[in-house]
Amino acid sequence: MSVERVVVGISGASGAALGARIVERLAALPAIETHLVVSDAARRTLDLECPPGTLARLTGLAHRHHPVGDVGASIASGSFPVRGMIVAPCSMQTLSAIATGRTDTLLTRAADVQLKERRRLVLLARETPLHLGHLRNMVAVTEMGAIVTPPVPAFYHCPRSVEEIVDHIAARAIDLLALPHAPLAKSWEG
Ligand SMILES: Cc1cc2nc3c(=O)[nH]c(=O)nc-3n(C[C@H](O)[C@H](O)[C@H](O)COP(=O)(O)O)c2cc1C
């Protein structure tokens, strides 16, 4: 199995645990190289919403942790082959930047690269309720090829904890990258 590179961006919407779980899940898969980029606002949500030391743990699990200001990092270039990118959670600010091609941080530049190279870009857009501008940005990124998958819980697998809900959403997001691993999320058998 050849090594697959995956970029994980964590932006400053609520639900930092989703990004954390995705990094953990990817670290447990064989032949996956995870490149992590965390926005400044996400540093704050990770601090507020996750156990102490979470960011340090994630940077240890990822193959590379790129500073969000480093627009010269490998993942800022389309010539650096990656399978795709997940932004989890994706704030409305980051969604808007992606929708309008604003690439002034490494996170939004890396997302833009996925679109221009016609690679998978999976956005766990998190806000509620949504105004028309949010919805229009979701339409725009979908038209450009991104997959918008808001972190909406499924209840058909009868989750017993928040952790199980987070884990299921994380597994579904990774499955959307179509990596050469079996689906991670438990599938509905009818
Ligand atoms: C605790 C907390 C929760 C937030 N939740 C959301 C959210 O769910 N959705 C959102 O779009 N912004 C949310 N924000 C606001 C974003 O962090 C803010 O718009 C920030 O500028 C986003 O920057 P980024 O996209 O570069 O990460 C939240 C902020 C904080 C401090």
Task: Write structural notes for this entry.
With 190 residues, the protein is α/β, with parallel strands linked by helices. It has a single domain (4-175), classed as Rossmann fold, CATH 3.40.50. 39% of the residues lie in helices and 17% in strands. It contains 7 helices and 6 strands; from the N terminus they run βαβααββααβαβα. The protein has helices at residues 16-27, 40-49, 54-61, 92-99, 106-116, 132-143, 162-175; strands spanning 4-10, 32-38, 64-66, 84-90, 120-125, 147-148. α6 links the parallel β5 and β6. α1 (16-27) runs parallel beside α3 and α4 (92-99) packs across α6 (132-143).
CATH topology-level name? Rossmann fold
Which parts are unreliable, with pLDDT below 50 for 5 consecutive residues or more?
none
CATH architecture group name = 3-Layer(aba) Sandwich
Order of helices and strands: EHEHHEEHHEHEH
Number of domains: 1
State the helix count. 7
Please state the structural category: alpha/beta
What strand order characterises the main sheet? Answer: 3-2-1-4-5-6
What name goes with the CATH superfamily? Flavin prenyltransferase-like
Largest sheet: 6 strands, parallel
Global morphology? globular
Gap between N and C termini, in Å?
Answer: 32 Å
In what range is the share of β-strand residues? Answer: 15-25%
Number of strands: 6
Rg over CA atoms, rounded to whole Å, is 15 Å
CATH class: Alpha Beta
